[in-house]
Structure formats: structure tokens, C-alpha cells
Amino acid sequence: MENNIIYTVKEVKKETGNVFTLTLSYDGAVKPFRAGQYITVFFPETGHVEGKSYSISNIISPTSFTITVKSIGVFSNKLIDLKVGDKLSASFPYGYFYTESDESSLVLISGGIGIAPFKAIIQESLLKTPNRKIILFYSNKTQKDIIFKNEWEDIIMKYPETFRVNHYITQEHVEGGIKSGRIPVSDIIEQSKNLSDPEFFLCGSITFVRDYWRGLKDGGIPEISIYTEAFF
Ligand SMILES: Cc1cc2nc3c(=O)[nH]c(=O)nc-3n(C[C@H](O)[C@H](O)[C@H](O)COP(=O)(O)OP(=O)(O)OC[C@H]3O[C@@H](n4cnc5c(N)ncnc54)[C@H](O)[C@@H]3O)c2cc1C
Q1: Cα of 90 to ligand 1 centre, how many Å?
Q2: Is the minimum distance from the CB of 76 to ligand 1 under 6 angstroms?
Q3: Whose C-alpha lies nearest to ligand 1, atom 14?
Q4: One CATH from 3.40.50.10860, 3.40.50.80, 3.40.50.720, 2.60.120.620 for 105-231
Q5: 229 lines ligand 1 (CB under 6 A)
Q6: Which of 32, 68, 139, 203 has its Cβ near the most Cβ atoms within 10 Å?
Q7: Is 231 in the pocket of ligand 1 (CB under 6 A)?
Q8: Measured between alpha carbons, how far is 118 from 203 in angstroms, rounded to an integer?
Q9: 64 contacts 10 by C-beta, under 8 angstroms
Q10: Domain 4-91, CATH class in plain words
Q11: Among 74, 123, 78, which Cα is nearest to 98's?
């Protein structure tokens, strides 16, 4: 089985001002994948031979999934410029940003586009282990930047006993259940203290992941319970 394959773009959907979700599918032999993995995308014409990584943001079928891309530079802009029917050279999904446990509670902490793998992780968990508790802490600059805002509201309505989301907004005044400022580590620790076997997942920029990893560790969370995925 080839490691790098050609995907077909099935849909391109705008999520927020500069964030788009692409649905990709491939026709070849199936190699199993799961939420928490990512693909490496190749655009040889850029001269960047290693390619760049994009997390699976939703699993649609054994041969189809989405990635969610924030447009900031060369690769991300090439991705969001793709049209339905276009081909994309990329790897099979790989990576280890997931738990092997079916019973732990999930505490997910993300900033901005760092939400991408959590969307897939939450959906997979609700499908396969619906009784597992999930708390999402999600930080954005403004309310308009909240990616998948409607989806979070739908999931809360559907799974009020299972899923809780905490939104934090750093660069505008907010009210109505949304908190201002960065996510305090004390909020994370407070809300997770009654969870059974909590595991902590951090995803965002390198500084975001580093700061919360240190904060959780200083707050007494064992390193073995902290999983990280830094976007760079
Ligand atoms: C494991 C992994 C998973 C990833 N998953 C995703 C994903 O699901 N969605 C996604 O959009 N990206 C994801 N990334 C990041 C992605 O791989 C690229 O690094 C990103 O798209 C920028 O590449 P570019 O070529 O578009 O920008 P470049 O042309 O490399 O950079 C353009 C400019 O933006 C600056 N810049 C780079 N990163 C950021 C940032 N995060 N915020 C602000 N400015 C920045 C650079 O310094 C530069 O000035 C992931 C990275 C890793 C390692």
C-alpha cells in the first residue's frame, strides 16, 4: 500500500472568516485511521519537500474525512483555494494524539485552530463511548473566531450529561456565559477534580501547549495524563 496517496476534494466549507473545512476522500485500499491523527500534505511546486501537517477534524467513512484549515501562509492558502473535484497529494493519516482508554474522562484544551483534532475526538467519543465525560476549554480572540460554534451548541443540547464547553475570549468584552481572558489553569483543575480518571489534551500553538503543559504539571496533574499536539 502506498504511503502517499491522492485524495479528491469533495467539499470546501467556510467556518469563520479565515477558516475552511475540506472534505477529502480516496479510492484506494483502506488503511484504518482514527480521531487524533493527521495527514501530511504535499505541494511539490512550493519546494517544501517535507510537506505540512493537518489534523483530521471529522471522520466521515473509512475512506473519507475532513481537515480544517486556517489561512495564514503558503500551504494553508493553497489548501483553501482547492475546488471540489481537485486532487491533493498527502499521506495516510498517522500520529498518536488519542487515548487507548475507553473509560477515562477527556479534558480538552485548545486555542484557535487547535480545535481541529478535538472536533473529531469528541465526535468519535460520543459515538463509541457515549458515557465518557468530556469537558472542552476553548480560547479565541473574538467570538467570531469560535470555530464550530453551532456544532458545540448542538452537542450540548444532545448530550448535556456528557459534554460541557467553556469558551474564553481574549480580545473583546463578552458576557452571557462566555468568559473574558485566557483560560485559567485553575478553571481546568477545578472542573476536572470530580471526573473519573481525567486525561488532558492540549492543542494549539507551541507557546499555548507549552504554557498549559507547565501549568497543569505545576497544578499537580501527572505528566502521563497530559497529551500534546503543537501546531507549527
Ligand atoms: C501535527 C500538526 C497538525 C496540524 N494541524 C493543523 C490543522 O488542523 N489546521 C491548520 O490550519 N494547521 C495545522 N497545522 C499547522 C500547519 O501544518 C501549517 O504549519 C500552517 O498551515 C501554516 O503553514 P503555511 O504554509 O500556510 O504558512 P507559512 O507560509 O509557513 O507561514 C506564514 C506566516 O504565518 C506565521 N505563522 C505560522 N504558524 C502560525 C500560527 N499558528 N498562527 C499565526 N501565525 C503563524 C509564520 O510565522 C509566517 O509568518 C498543524 C501542524 C502540525 C505540526
Answers
A1: 16
A2: yes
A3: 231
A4: 3.40.50.80
A5: yes
A6: 203
A7: yes
A8: 8
A9: yes
A10: mainly beta
A11: 123
| CA-nearest residue, atom 10 of ligand 1 | 69
List per-residue pLDDT tens for the chain, 232 residues long: 457 899 999 999 999 999 999 999 998 887 899 999 999 999 999 999 999 999 999 999 999 999 999 999 999 999 999 999 999 999 999 999 999 999 999 999 999 999 999 999 999 999 999 999 999 999 999 999 999 999 999 999 999 999 999 999 999 999 888 999 999 999 999 999 999 999 999 999 999 999 999 999 999 999 999 999 999 9
Cell numbers at 165, concatenated: 464547553
| Strand pairing category for 19-25 and 64-70 | antiparallel
Is residue 70 a contact partner of residue 76, using CB atoms and an 8 Å limit? yes
Give me the amino acid identity at 177. G
52 lines ligand 1 (CB under 6 A): yes
- Ligand 1 center from residue 162 Cα (angstroms): 32
Residue having the nearest C-alpha atom to atom 48 of ligand 1 = 73
Structural domain boundaries in the chain = 4-91, 105-231
